[in-house]
Q: What sequence folds into this?
């Protein structure tokens, strides 16, 4: 059975397919932990000391490290491992595809959540024209939920355990942190933008059980999968095919507008449109909250370079454009008051435990470090918000 | 009819070496490595199965490995991956 997937949605990879997936996970862990550490050492001990002046930006680090033989092996291996992630699950999904569509359709009416698709919605270019993170076919491929299965099973291989048993470590960590940090904030209506298969949507319904929780995305396959997954897990949530830039919901109709790993997949003008839309959707006293990669402006040049790698080699063309922005400034430009802004570095609940997350909520905020937003052992999640 | 799931992502594949043949060889080596691992894993399962003489060969597919052997295999796999990079991790 596939790992990190609810039994009702799990596929049945063969023994060899399972071993292949485990190999790819081990390869990724080696690249992102061991090879990454080795590359950093090479940088500090061998490459950087030979430069005329210390680099001031991630770009300068990139330029200086590019000819290095180890950088080339690191990068080539990481690209191959990324391709192998999707390849390791494709065969299983393909073989079970027809039956799986039936299983998905059957998973409804258990928890009271709904699915609303809009075939007329235009899928924006950032989704239709690019196979983001080298995922063949992208999020919107096909009319069934197969692309959702590729995504969830692939993410299980990709994250080698760091996203938790339910692949929701980000949402679970951040929802727990928020509820501990602001115990009087009890959102009644919550929106998750760019929710894909709802991994980080459901933790909000679990944390705030009385709230109405809605996840939106432009890609139908993920939403089909998200609905079935939520129902299978007995968590009530509503999934709708809508564009986060113009959602069609009423002014002031949400208490919390959240997104996870979403903004860095958007062109800058769309990010601005999404922030303005979030501002419109929030009632006074409501909160816009994002889980994202930490900004370049708050990282040392090597760490900035390390995270921007995806922009150049992992089909993430908007990654650096987003990371070059200042989150506080983005919120201000969208009309949020400057004094309503906050940011935090939240320990992964799976890696550090719930007590560490709660402790972080009552302590002076931790600064961004090399583990922040970096999928490797000891990961911490960067989040920021603005009160409306 | 439903199109088969695509194998490759849109766009050019990044290359890192002066000679693109090296990039291709990296891929080949990694694919061989994956296959080599898959076979080795399967062999370990078969050996365990034969050792305990249970049922027929058809049961190998569904055979659950004992935790200690899985842990040993996990460690061997990590070791194997490390060895693969012997030439460059020095
Ligand atoms: C990296 S995924 C988000 C993952 C998910 N939020 C999570 O944390 O598990 C980005 C998602 O954004 C969606 N997306 C991209 N542009 C969008 C837009 N303008 N409106 C709504 N969704 C969009 C994509 O279809 C994709 O599913």
A:
């Amino acid at each position: 059975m596939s790992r990190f997937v609810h039994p009702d949605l799990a596929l049945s990879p063969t023994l060899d397919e399972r071993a292949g997936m485990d190999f790819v996970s081990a390869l990724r862990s080696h690249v992102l932990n061991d090879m990454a550490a080795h590359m950093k050492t090479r940088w500090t001990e061998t490459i950087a000391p030979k430069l005329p002046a210390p680099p001031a930006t991630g770009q300068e680090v990139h330029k200086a490290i590019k000819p290095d033989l180890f950088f080339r092996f690191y990068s080539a291996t990481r690209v191959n491992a990324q391709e192998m992630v999707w390849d390791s699950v494709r065969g299983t999904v393909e073989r079970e595809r027809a039956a799986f569509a039936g299983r998905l359709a059957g998973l409804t009416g258990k928890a009271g959540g709904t699915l609303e698709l809009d075939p007329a919605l235009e899928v924006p270019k950032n989704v239709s024209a690019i196979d983001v993170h080298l995922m063949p076919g992208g999020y919107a491929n096909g009319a069934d939920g197969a692309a959702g299965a590729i995504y969830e099973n692939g993410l299980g291989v990709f994250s080698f355990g760091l996203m938790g048993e339910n692949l929701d470590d980000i949402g679970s960590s951040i929802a727990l942190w928020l509820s501990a940090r602001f115990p009087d904030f009890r959102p009644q209506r919550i929106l998750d933008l760019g929710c894909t298969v709802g991994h980080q949507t459901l933790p909000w319904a679990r944390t705030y059980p009385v709230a109405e929780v809605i996840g939106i995305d432009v890609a139908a396959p993920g939403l089909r999968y998200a609905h079935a997954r939520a129902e299978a897990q007995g968590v009530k949530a509503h999934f709708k095919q809508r564009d986060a830039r113009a959602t069609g919901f009423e002014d002031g109709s949400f208490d919390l507008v959240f997104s996870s790993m979403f903004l860095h997949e958007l062109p800058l003008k769309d990010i601005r449109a999404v922030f303005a839309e979030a501002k419109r959707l929030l009632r006074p006293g409501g909160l816009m909250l994002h889980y994202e990669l930490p900004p370049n402006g708050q990282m040392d040049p090597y760490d900035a370079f390390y995270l921007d790698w995806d922009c150049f080699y992992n089909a993430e063309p908007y990654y650096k454009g987003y990371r070059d922005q200042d989150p506080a400034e983005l919120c201000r430009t969208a009309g949020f008051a400057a004094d309503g802004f906050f940011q935090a570095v939240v320990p992964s609940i799976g890696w550090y435990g719930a007590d560490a997350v709660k402790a972080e909520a009552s302590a002076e905020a931790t600064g961004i470090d090399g583990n922040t937003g970096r999928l490797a052992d000891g990961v911490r999640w960067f989040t920021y918000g603005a009160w409306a | 009819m439903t199109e088969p799931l695509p194998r490759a992502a849109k766009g050019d594949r990044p290359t890192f070496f002066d000679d693109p043949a090296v990039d291709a060889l990296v891929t080949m080596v990694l694919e061989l490595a994956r296959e080599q691992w898959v076979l080795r894993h399967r062999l370990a399962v078969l050996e365990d199965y034969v050792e305990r003489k249970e049922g027929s060969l058809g049961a190998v597919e569904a055979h659950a490995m004992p935790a200690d052997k899985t842990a040993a295999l996990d460690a061997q796999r990590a070791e194997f991956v490390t060895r693969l990079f012997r030439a460059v991790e020095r």
About this structure: Residues A 124, 126-127, 139, 170, 194-196, 199-200, 216-219, 222, 243-245, 260-262, 265-266, 270 surround S-adenosylmethionine (CB under 6 Å). The mean pLDDT of chain B is 83. Chain B touches chain A at residues 2-11, 13-17, 22-23, 26-27, 30, 33-34, 37-38, 41-42, 45, 60-61, 63, 74, 77-78, 81-82, 85, 88-89 (CB under 8 Å). Residues 63-90 of chain B form one domain.
